[in-house]
């Protein structure tokens, strides 16, 4: 198998990311689609269960990120999530997990295109949503060609958008007296779910902000100092939970049971007193997923291109570059097409969040870890990992089947 570094056009010395760039890329992956739906998630779950699942997801996925990279370092020649799966469970396990891996990455990318389109339609309500998404395609395809290092500069915009969103949600709440949309006069909220039938819908929304484990190997392998990966993870998670709590808690207090799939939709429809500021944050939310889209697809592109390098086209650089461009363009086109056909942001996040985020971001890393390092682990390490697998499996099954049964 060819080296990861041979896939990119830059030299190894040039493509490494600094500690700060790695944090920015990591935060950009975490603070994305999940942030906007947190008020709706709390509306479904109530305060107690919502906060419990949110913090449980944070702790579990933080741990899973670290053991995933330990598995990646098990031996030389591992570069992607499916590579770890192949080592742990052989070819059958590899292909089963590869399906989940591809669905998770592509599903998250579809959600990003839906988010960009929805945000742009808030700003340009007279333009067709389909036309706006086609416009997204024109911008997204070139971004998938750019090296991951340079995306860190675009990723900074994504991180700033999430931070500014939290700040502007709070500013809106403290500068408005009338419901809905006020923190001074908050809406009625519930400690427990007001409708228990809606509770499973929240599971996928609450874990969505902690997904991205399929992309973490790419970030790790691009680091100048990979030994600092755990510090990157902890710093990024600390930043993200602050943003999540401000956005989710303030958003739920402000809009209660009127919370919409994207909190920006609530903000733009409920208040005119900060119209310019609110329009600014919607613009940021619309633009920031652009770099995240390219980052999200990087593991898929990387996996395919490693296969190109190991095939007959490896000897022909021109043909390899053509296949590289063609595959990235076709994948982006397919994703935009699905986003046009299936335009419901919250339903997409509920489904892929429960089915895929729990499996890719928690269950599979623990399974890899037990398989590769099981003979070196103490009994409480085994117990901890098995509990994670069981609890996340229950959340995943409930969160996946419930929307299907309630269609």
Question: Care to describe what's here?
Answer:
By secondary structure, the protein is mainly α. The protein has one domain: Up-down Bundle (Amino acid/polyamine transporter I), CATH 1.20.1740. The protein is built from 17 helices and no strands. Helix 3 runs parallel beside helix 11, helix 6 packs across helix 15 and helix 16 packs antiparallel against helix 17. It is found in: Membrane. Belongs to the amino acid/polyamine transporter 2 family. It comes from Dentiscutata erythropus. GO terms for molecular function: L-amino acid transmembrane transporter activity.
Q: Could you provide a short overview of the structure?
A:
This protein is 76% helix and 0% strand. With 407 residues, the protein is mostly helical.
Fill in the keyword field for this structure.
407 residues, 0% strand, disordered N terminus, single chain, 17 helices, Amino acid/polyamine transporter I, mainly alpha
């Amino acid at each position: 198998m060819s080296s990861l570094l041979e896939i990119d056009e830059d030299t190894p010395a040039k493509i490494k990311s600094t500690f700060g760039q790695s944090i920015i890329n990591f935060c950009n992956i975490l603070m994305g689609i999940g942030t906007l739906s947190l008020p709706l998630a709390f509306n479904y779950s109530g305060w107690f269960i919502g906060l419990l699942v949110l913090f449980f997801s944070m702790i579990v996925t933080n741990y899973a990120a670290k053991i995933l990279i330990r598995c990646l370092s098990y031996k030389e020649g591992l570069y992607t999530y499916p590579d770890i799966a192949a080592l742990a469970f052989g070819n059958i396990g590899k292909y089963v997990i590869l399906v989940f891996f591809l669905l998770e990455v592509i599903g998250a990318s579809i959600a990003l295109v839906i988010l960009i389109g929805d945000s742009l339609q808030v700003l340009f309500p007279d333009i067709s949503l389909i036309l706006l998404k086609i416009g997204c395609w024109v911008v997204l395809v070139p971004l998938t060609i750019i090296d991951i290092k340079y995306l860190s500069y675009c990723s900074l915009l994504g991180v700033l958008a999430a931070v500014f969103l939290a700040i502007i949600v709070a500013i809106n709440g403290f500068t408005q007296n009338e419901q809905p949309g006020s923190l001074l006069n908050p809406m009625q909220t519930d400690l427990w779910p007001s409708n228990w039938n809606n509770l499973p819908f929240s599971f996928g929304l609450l874990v969505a902000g902690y997904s991205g484990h399929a992309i973490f190997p790419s970030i790790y392998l691009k680091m100048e100092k990979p030994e600092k990966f755990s510090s990157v993870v902890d710093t990024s998670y600390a930043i993200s939970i602050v943003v999540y709590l401000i956005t989710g808690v303030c958003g739920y207090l402000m809009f209660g049971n009127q919370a919409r799939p994207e909190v920006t939709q609530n903000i733009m429809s409920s208040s005119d007193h900060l119209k310019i500021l609110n329009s600014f944050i919607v613009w940021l939310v619309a633009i920031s997923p652009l770099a995240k889209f390219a980052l999200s697809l990087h593991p898929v592109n990387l996996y395919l291109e490693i296969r190109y390098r190991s095939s007959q086209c490896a000897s022909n650089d021109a043909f390899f570059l053509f296949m590289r461009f063609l595959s990235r363009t076709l994948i982006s086109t397919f994703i935009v097409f699905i986003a046009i056909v299936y335009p419901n942001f919250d339903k997409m996040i509920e489904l892929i969040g429960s089915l895929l985020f729990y499996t890719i971001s928690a269950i599979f890393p623990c399974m890899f870890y037990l398989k590769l390092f099981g003979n070196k682990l103490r009994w409480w390490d085994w117990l901890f990992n098995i509990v994670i697998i069981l609890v996340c499996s229950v959340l995943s099954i409930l969160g996946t089947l419930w929307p299907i049964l309630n269609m």
